[in-house]
Every structure is written in C-alpha cells, then in structure tokens.
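Blinded run. Sample ID left blank on purpose so nobody reads anything into the name before looking at the predicted structure. Input follows.
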Amino acid sequence: MKLTLDDFDYALPPECIAQAPLAERSASRLLVMKDDTLEDRGFTDLPDFLAPGDLIVMNDTRVMHARLYGIKPTGGQVEVLVERMTAEDEVLAQVRASKPPRSGSWLRLENAFDAEVLSREGEFYHLRFHANEPGNAVELIERYGNLPLPPYIERQAANADEERYQTVYARERGSVAAPTAGLHFDAPLLERLRARGVGIAYVTLHVGAGTFQPVRVQDLAQHHMHIERYVLPQATADAVAATRQRGGRIVAVGTTTLRTLESVVNADGSLKVGAGETALFVSPGYEFRVADLLITNFHLPKSTLLMLVSAFGGMDNIRAAYAHAINSGYRFFSYGDAMLIHRQ
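Blinded prediction complete.
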C-alpha cells in the first residue's frame, strides 16, 4: 500500500483545539472505537471497558522546562527548544532566530548562562552549556527554562500548566512534550482500576521536540522519524508476559507507550529489557505485536501520530471517528478529549 501525506489530512475547525485543560483531569470525554462502531462515553467510564487481569502500560516521563529565551552577541533574540541531552553539559535543540547562529558562536540564555553553538545537525543545533554555578544541563534547564506548551496552544504557559501538563505519575525528567493520553488519569481513577483487578506498569520514553516537526515528504516511505530515548524495566516485561499467560489484554496509554513496546518486542513476543533509542515509524500496514487497546488523544492532520492510530484502528475507521468527534464537539490535541481504540 503506497501512502501519501494527503491520505492523513482532514479539516479541523480552530475552535476544536483545546487551549486549556478542564477543571478535572478525568472529566474528559472518551470516544470508544471498536472496528467501525463508535460509542460516546466519559473518561471516568474507562474501567467499564477493562477486565480483571488486563494490564495498563503508561509512560512515566516528566516534561522539562525545555524552552529557553535569550540573545545573540549582536542583540538578536533567540528561542531554544531542547530536543534531548547528548552529554552532561550538551544538548540537541531547535533554535529560532532571525538569522541562524553559526558554529562557534555563543548565545546568552535567560540572562543566566551561556550556550556555545558546536554544530548544526539537520534541523537541530548541538549546544554546550556553560555556567558559573554547579549543575548539569538538565539542572540548568529546570532552574531557568520555561514549560514548553505545544505550538497550537496560543498562549504562554501559566502556573496551572506546571501541574496539568504533567501526568500524575510523571517521574523521569527528559521530555519536551507531555505524553498527553496520560493527562486524563487522576488518583481516584487509578485506584478504581486497581480495585477492578487491572494491573499498571510503566515504560519511559522521553518525547523529543521532533514530535512537533511536520512530515515534509509526500511519499511516506521516504519519511524518517526523529530519535527518542526509552527505558523498558524488567518489572514491565514480566507484567506483560504474565498478562499474556493469563489471557489478559495489554492497554497502551498513548502513542509513546505503544511505540516503546513495539520497539522492544523480540521475535518470540517477549520484551527486551533496558535502555535504548527508537526511531520507529508506524503507518498503516504495520503489524502490531504487543498492545490490544490504545488510549490516545486526537492528533494533528498529516502527523505521524495520526498515521500510527490509523495503523492501529484502521484508516477508514479513524477517518469516520474523527469526523464524528468534530461534529460532536470533542476537544482536540494535548488538552483535549480521548479515544479508546481496540486494535483492528
């Protein structure tokens, strides 16, 4: 099947894009999709669709203060969005400026520390942080940076976003974007799931700034995904194996969790434990081997995330579900509503 970028386009009214979270995390709507059937529910109804012995797998990454503002020696303004760490004091980052900075130049960030431009790597810059105080790159970012809300949220991050743009189970710092399917879970809902006999396990995938980069090729066979770092713990591999053995289902919370699980599955169906990097690109025709259900938000037109959910639930089914969601007033993207998709 030859797929093009236009196969994943759709018209989204701007008013459908959620600009702020709801007052309560679990107050979101939930569109349940099984093959070509749709059911409108609330996110608090999620336990109704899961059974004792099922396993939910979540991404416990934590969003860093990865957006930094500064100036060049000429006085020109720059905006830095950290992609990922490459060493204790070095990062890969997007840099927005009126003129691209040259290798060997310096940036003054947040009027607090300097960044040396080491090189350019495609759309990213390799920077080394220099500070007159103790702390590695992560600590400098957390101390001086800003929470990086997605570009389609047309406002600056507020104090409330410090809590709401993190999942309640976020632990491992390293992402520049939240694994947004997890934003719907609160402590009472997690407790209800446990009381129902649903297991909970975790992976870590640090979402990179590349997640916001548009796909720039029409022929999807030519697209190359950005690299993201992951960790698959032994406890999660054991939990997945035990769930399979007892006939339970694996429920991936978010596309990041799904990509992690699919990146580490061995030929025999077991999961490879440890840390690594993935550039897995999932589009229709991909054969999933781990997850049976996917909890996910509604994704941007022409995005790799929309391609992934179309592979999981079926292109025609997803297209119909999105049309239904728009007509029914669902809220889209990071602070929007959710879907529960059964694997086609």
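Unblinding after everyone has recorded impressions. DSSP finds seven helices and 17 strands in the chain.
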